[in-house]
Amino acid sequence: MAAIELRNVTKKFATADGGTYTAIEDLSLTVEDGQFCAVVGPTGCGKSTTLTLVSGLERPSRGEALVHGEPVRGIDTGTGFVFQQDAVFPWRTVLDNVAAGPLYRGRSRAEAAALARDWLRRVGLSGFEDRYPHQLSGGMRKRVALAQSLINQPRILLMDEPFSALDVQTRAIMSTELLHLWDQTRPAVVFVTHDLEEAIALADKVVVLTAGPGTVKAEFEIDLPRPRVVQEIRLDPRFTRLYGEIWEALRAEVAEAYARTTRVAGVAS
Amino acid sequence: MIDTPTRVQPDGAVASAPGAVPTPRAASPRRRANRRRLGLAGVRLAVVVALLAAWQLCVNAKIVDPFFWGEPRGVWADLQDWVTVGTSQGSLGDQILVTLEEAVLGFVIGSILGIVFGIALGRIHLLSEIFAPFLKAANSIPRIILGSIFTVAFGFGIQSKVVLAVVLVFFGVFFNAFQGAREVDRNLIANARLLGASRWRVTRDVVLPSAFTWILASLHISFGFALIGALVGEILGANQGLGLLIRSSQNNFDMNGVLAGMVLVAVIALTAESLITLLERRLLRWRPPQTHGGAAIE
Ligand SMILES: Nc1ncnc2c1ncn2[C@@H]1O[C@H](COP(=O)(O)OP(=O)(O)O)[C@@H](O)[C@H]1O
Ligand SMILES: [Mg+2]
């Protein structure tokens, strides 16, 4: 049984002028247990929306979202979510941020703190327990977010362009660390990004979405060997070949999305 | 994991500035800031002295009539008199305590009610749909008028003043708490829910702290409102308090007495304001320092 299955889902949003806007249409996607799936597509094609359907934050307008064969009804706390923007709690210290999950799940204060310390060590943040998020760099805040999510040992991990705000070097380092952490518990991952290199370097499978309303355009198996070091894998000839292949599929969608926004801008101005 | 470009100095310098100035050298700018603050205080004092002197000189030169406008020397004499001899209504300390008690009670009760109702209506959509029109209507009433009703209904004691102060404080805090609860980052709420928080925990752990930035902003103004409520209540009818003191001075055409009362009220208001700023600093410790509220106008 697949860890995540989206069956012909469509999501429509009500717009301010009373109409509806179709964010994704007839999208089907399967992610196996322990599989790392990257979703790429141009901005605004419905990548974030797809994740909200899997996590239960939103319901599909049509179609079905299944997790471990069960339809998603409401927020599923077995799912971890790492947001694009900072979603760590700015008024809590690093330790309290990471300990939040276990506390909400009924662990005692001491147990939660001990667990949190362990996870902070795993993400390389020992010694920063008492800091507030604003006292950390962007990369460190992302580590807090990762630890906050992984401490609950989710079977499903959803990540929405988690590293997009980081500089290139930090991003590569964080990606390698993510793979390392993922390897310890092997949840099924849906990793949304608009960066194709990042997608190929991380994933077992890359899914290309069409320009909005998003639907699956093509899927590619990434058979690069693991463990991978993100900084170096780009030099692998197989990487270059995959990149060429997938970019061929993605290029048209990016061009389409770009043309659309510039057309709209042109009309508006 | 250790070899990231975002390392942090062991002495606790901010992470984003790996080459931050070490502590010994940081002392110098602080001393300079202290000296600057001292200088500012000196200039401010000079401004006050100059204004008072000009006023007194105008009175002496018969440009300003002290019967209508009072004079600094007379105000000072009245204050001295109240402190040493006492007022017509008893000791000055008692008057201050009564007014303070009314204002603080009104402030605390009004703030708590405002926060509870504001957060509840901000969180529960149905509640806000039902009650929003009533609150808007109530808010449009000139609330000082209610003072007359309360004086008749609750009498000359402390009760009518506290109720008036509560009403004055409530709306400001309520609307800010309501707005604050509405403006909470949706990602933070989603994150808390995914981490397993119940609705109540989301309210307590996410909505309340997030709204506190808004609430604290309103508390600054609210103590002033509470004080106005207490004073107006006393002016409308009371046996004790600074408002009554001002009222009886007015009745005796003693403008110096009115002004002396105002000076005392100003001292109370400023003290309360600095206490609230302290509270704010403590509660908003988690924010980056430059955005601490109340720092812009000290
Ligand atoms: N809550 C919402 N209400 C209305 N429109 C939305 C909402 N969420 C997303 N959209 C629209 O749906 C489209 C897809 O959004 P999103 O999934 O965030 O795209 P992506 O993450 O791929 O950039 C966008 O055009 C966006 O404006
Ligand atoms: Mg997005």
Description:
Chain A: Keywords: ATP-binding, Nucleotide-binding, Transport. Chain A: It comes from Intrasporangium oryzae NRRL B-24470. Chain A: This is Aliphatic sulfonate ABC transporter ATP-binding protein. The complex is a heterodimer of chains A (269) and B (298). Chain A is 40% helix and 23% strand. Chain A has 269 residues and is an alpha/beta fold. Chain A folds into two domains: 32-57 and 156-268, P-loop containing nucleotide triphosphate hydrolases (Rossmann fold, 3-Layer(aba) Sandwich), CATH 3.40.50; 88-153. In chain A, the strands form two sheets. Chain A has a six-stranded mixed sheet with strand order 6-7-8-3-9-10, with helices on both faces. Chain A has a four-stranded antiparallel sheet with strand order 2-1-4-5, covered by helices on one side. Chain A starts with a strand and ends with a helix. The model of chain A has no long low-confidence stretch (mean pLDDT 93). Chain B is mostly helical and 298 residues long. Chain B has helices spanning 23-60, 66-69, 72-84, 92-123, 125-140, 146-154, 158-182, 186-194, 199-236, 242-251, 255-283. The two termini of chain B are 44 Å apart. Residues 1-22 and 291-298 of chain B have low confidence and may be disordered. The chains are: A alpha/beta (269), B mainly alpha (298). The A-B interface holds A 55, 57, 75, 77, 79-81, 83, 85-92, 100-101, 104-105, 123-124, 128, 132-140, 148-149, 152, 167, 169-170, 173, 177 and B 1-6, 8, 14-16, 185, 187-188, 190-198, 201, 205-206, 209-210, 285-288.
Structural class of chain A, by secondary structure, is alpha/beta
The named CATH superfamily of the largest domain in chain B? MetI-like
* pLDDT averaged residue by residue of chain A: 93
Task: Label the structural class of chain B.
Answer: mainly alpha
State the gist of this model.
With 269 residues, chain A is α/β, with parallel strands linked by helices. Chain A has helices at residues 47-55, 94-104, 109-122, 138-150, 168-185, 196-202, 230-233, 237-268, and strands at residues 4-14, 20-31, 36-40, 62-67, 70-71, 79-82, 156-160, 188-193, 205-209, 216-221. In chain A, 40% of the residues lie in helices and 23% in strands.
